[in-house]
Amino acid sequence: QALAMLRRSGGTAATLRNAEIMRWHTALAREEGLYVEPSSAAAVAAVERLRASGQIGERDSVVALLTASGLKDPARTDTVLDEFLRVPADMREAVAVLQGAGVFAQT
Question: Which of 19, 25, 52, 87 is disulfide-compatible with 41, CB 3.0–4.6 A?
Answer without folding.
Answer: 25
